[in-house]
Amino acid sequence: MREITLSKAVNEAIAEEMRRDPTIFVIGEDVAEAGTPFKVLSGLVEEFGTDRIIDTPISEPGFMGMAVGAAMTGSRPIVDLMFGDFLFLVMDQLCNQAAKTHYMSGGKLSVPLVLRTNLGATRRSAAQHSQSLHALVAHIPGLKVALPSSAYEAKGLMKTAIRDNNPVVIFEDKLMYQDKAEVPEEEYLIPFGVANIKREGTDITLIATSSMVQVAEKAAVILAAEGISAEVIDPRTIVPLDEATLIASVKKTGRAIVIDEGHQSYGITGEIASRLTEKAFYHLDAPVIRMGAMDVPVPFSPALEDLTVPTPDTVAAMARRLVAGELIHAL
Amino acid sequence: MPSEVIMPALGMAQETGILVRWLKEAGDAVTKGEPLIEVETDKAVQEVEAQASGYLSALSAQAGDEVPVGQVIGLIVESADAVTGGAAATAAPAVESVAAPAPEPVAPAPAPAPVEEPIPGGRLFASPKLRRIAAEEGLDLSLLARAGHAQPWHMADLDALRALAAANAAAPDQTGTAKPQQYAALGQSSTFGYVAARVSAAPCAEFLDWMANEGKITLPASALYASFAAAALRAATGQNRIIVGLVSLTGDGLSAPRLLADPDHARLSHQPGTEAGASLILRDLTDSPLTALRPLAADPVPVLTIARDGSDLRISLDYPAGTLDDTAALSLISGLATRLAEPLAHLV
Q1: Is the minimum CB–CB distance between B137 and chain A shorter than 8 Å?
Q2: Model confidence over A258-311: pLDDT tens digits?
Q3: Is the ipTM reported for this complex over the cut 0.85?
Q4: Of the candidates B52, B37, B46, which has an alpha carbon nearest to the alpha carbon of residue B14?
Q5: What is the C-alpha to C-alpha distance for residues A148 and A120, in angstroms, rounded to an integer?
Q6: Contacts of B291 (CB under 8 A, 6+ apart)
Q7: Smallest CA–CA distance from B130 into chain A, residue
C-alpha cells in the first residue's frame, strides 16, 4: 500500500470532503497561499479558490465567531487554528457558543464545525507554542475531541469529523506532520468512540493518545525484550471515549499506565485512570498510573524541554515497577 | 482463649507507639470492632479497635507509655471471671507469658491454647484483584503476613497464598491445635512449662548478609540459632557440655535431630556433630509458615522452637518438668532473645 505523510493525509481528507460537499469551507490564518506554516493545506486554494479557502486577518476570536455563525446557518466550516495554544483566544466562541447552541436552541440549530489545530512539545517552540490543551475542550459537554496518532488515523478521523453535525475539535501532533504511514487510496472513515488496539499483550495496558501512541509502542518493544507483554491502546477520540475496550483490557492485564502529552494534573490521564479505577477496581493488581507532561510551562531549552514529556524509557521503567509489584506510592 | 491486645504498627516504619489512653478499663466488656485504645505515632493520634470480644484483662501498659510495636499490652478474655488486674502479663519486656508447671498429681495440664497471632502491621496491603480472588476462593490473606511475605501483595503472591492455605488446612495437628487430647494425655504423666518471646528477625538477617558480603562465608541461619541457643542454655544452667539437636521442617515433616556438640564453642562455619544425646532440641521453623509447634513426644529435654512471624522471630520454649526450673527457663529464653537481637555482641 502507498505511504503518505500525516500532512498529506489531512490535505486529502479535506479535499475529498470539499469535492463531495460544496457547503464546506476552510477559514483561518495563512491557510490559502501559504497553505499553513506546516504546509498541510498546500494546493487547496488552487483547486477550491479563495471563496472556500479563506485567509483571515490575525484575529482568532473574529474568524472563530464567523465560523460558528456560518455553521448555524447552513455551512460546514473547517476552522484552522495555527497553534493549539491559541485555543485560549477562541474559548467563548467555541465553548459558550458552538458547544451549547444545539442544546440552548432546543435542537433547532446545530453547529457542524470542525476546529483543526495541533498539540505537542519538543519542537523548540517555547511555552506559548508547545502546549497540548485538549483537556480544556474535552471538559466542555457538546464538543467532541479527536486525537489522530498517524497519517491513517488523521485522514479517517478528519473525514468523520467533517461529516459530524456537531462541533468537533481535532488535534494533530505537530511533530508528526512528516511521518508516513500506509493510507489506502480508496475512501474510508474511522468512527468516533472506537479505540484501536495497536498491540496485544497480557501483563500491562498502555493507554496512549496522539503523540504518545508511538512512545507507548516503543516502550512495549523494550518491555517485550524483557519478557513483559504490554498491550497498547489508542482511544482515538477522548470524547466520546471507548471505555469498554479500555476496561476489557485492564480486566485482562490487571495493570495500566495512561500516557498523554497534556499536563499531568487535572488532565486526560487523570480522567481515564479514574474511570478505570471506578469500573475495574476489583481487577486491578496495581494502581493505575498517569504519565502526562510535567506540570511546568514547556521550557525553551532543548535539554529541559525533552525532560518534560514521557519517553519510551520512562514508560518502560514505570511498567517494570508495576509488573514487579513494587510499592508505587507511600501508604 | 484469651486474645492479645498489642501495640499496633500504624505506619510503615513505626517502631513504637505511645498509648494515649485506654478507652475501656480492666474488667469492661469489649465487643470486637469497638474502639479500645488511642495510640499516638509521630504522625497522628488514632483509635484502634478491639480485635476480639470479651472482657479486658491484664493491662500491662498505662496511658503515656511508649510501647514497642507488637508488644502485648493486655488481654481480652472470654469470661468476666478470668479478668486479672493490672500489670500481670509481662515478666520481662520481650516475654509474652509464663505458664508454671501445674502441681503434678492434681490435674492434667490444660491443653495448650492455639496461639492467636496478631497480624504484623495491622492492616494488610493487597491489590484489589488479589483481594477479590482471595475472597472468591475463601483464602485468608493474613496467612501471607504470618508467613512473612513482604507487602504489598499482588497476583504474583496468589500461588504462595494458596499453598499456605492448603498447608494450613492439611496440617493443623502440627500446630498443636487439632489434637489437644494427646497433649493433655501427656500432661497426666508429665508437665510442661512454656515461655515465648518475640524479637526482630532483622539483626540476624543483617549479620548473615554481612558475613556473606564481607566475609565471603555463607551460613545457614540455623548455625546462628544453634550457637546462641547453646550459649543461652549454658549461661542459664551452668552445664559444661551441651548437645543441641537441630530439627528442621521439611516437606515430609520434622527431620531427625542433627546433633551438634557445643556449637557455641565452635566456628559458625563448622559445628561438629556427635552421637551423644541431645540436651536441648532446637526446632527451626523459619522456612515454613508455622509460628508454633508444641512437642508431642515426651523427650526429657527442653524444646526450643524458632519460627518466623512477619518481620519477627518468634521463639518459644517447652520444658518438661524436671529439665529446667522456671528461673532457668526465663534466663534461657531471655538470653536467646538478646543474642538474636545483637548477634555481633555475642560472637566476639
Answers
A1: no
A2: 999 999 999 999 999 999 999 999 999 999 999 999 999 999 999 999 999 999
A3: no
A4: B46
A5: 12
A6: B115, B117, B146, B175, B285, B307, B308, B309, B314
A7: A285
- Establish, for the pair of chains A and B, how many residue pairs have beta carbons separated by less than 8 Å: 34
Mean predicted confidence (pLDDT) in A68-92: 98
DSSP run (H or E) holding B318 = strand B312-320
Instruction: List the single best residue of B131, B154, B157, B159 to mutate versus A (max A Cβ within 10 A).
Output: B154
Mutate which of A253, A281, A285 to test chain B, going by most B C-beta atoms within 10 A? A285
For every residue of A277-307, DSSP letters joined together read: HHHSGGG-SS--EEEEE-SSPPPSSHHHHTT
Residues of B in contact with A331 (CB under 8 A): 12, 125, 152
Q: Angle A151-163/A6-20 helices, nearest 10 degrees?
A: 30
- 3-state SS class at A23: coil
Nearest-Cα residue of chain A relative to residue B135: A282
Q: Is B58 left (phi over 0), alpha (psi -120 to 50) or beta?
A: left
Residue corresponding to grid cell 472470654: B78
Chain B residue with the nearest C-alpha to that of A331: B12
Contact A207, A272 (CB under 8 A): yes
Sort out which chain B residues have CB atoms less than 8 A from A281's CB and list them.
Answer: 128
CA-based nearest distance B126→chain A, Å? 8
SS3 B226: helix
DSSP per-residue codes, B83-113: ---SS-S-SSTTEEEEEPPPPTTT-PPPPPP
* The pLDDT of residue B118: 52
Position with higher pLDDT, B16 vs A112: A112
What is the rounded radius of gyration, in angstroms, for the C-alpha atoms of chain B?
Answer: 21
B129 interfaces chain A, CB cutoff of 8 Å: yes
- Nearest by CB to A285, which of B125, B129, B151? B129
Per-residue pLDDT, B94: 40
Tracing cell 498491550 back to the chain, one arrives at A231
Which residues of A participate in catalysis according to the annotation?
60, 129
Bridge partners for A256 per DSSP: A205
Q: Are strands B72-77 and B54-57 parallel, antiparallel or unpaired?
A: antiparallel
Give, for A272, the enclosing helix (H) or strand (E). Answer: helix A268-279
Give the pLDDT band of residue A63 (cuts 50, 70, 90): very high
Q: Which residue of A has its CA nearest to B155?
A: A285
Q: What is the pLDDT of residue B294?
A: 74
Residue B102 has pLDDT above 90, yes or no: no
- Biggest distance spanned by C-alpha atoms of chain A: 63
Q: Which residues pair with A233 in a beta bridge?
A: A197, A207
CB contact under 8 A, B129 and A331: no
Which residues of chain A are within 8 Å of residue B132 when distances are taken between CB atoms? 282-283
pTM for this predicted structure? 0.59
Residues in chain B: 348
Q: How far is B229 from chain A (nearest CA, A)?
A: 37
Per-residue confidence band for A150, with pLDDT thresholds at 50, 70 and 90: very high
Helix, strand or coil for residue A159?
helix
Alpha carbon of B285: minimum distance to chain A alpha carbons (Å): 27
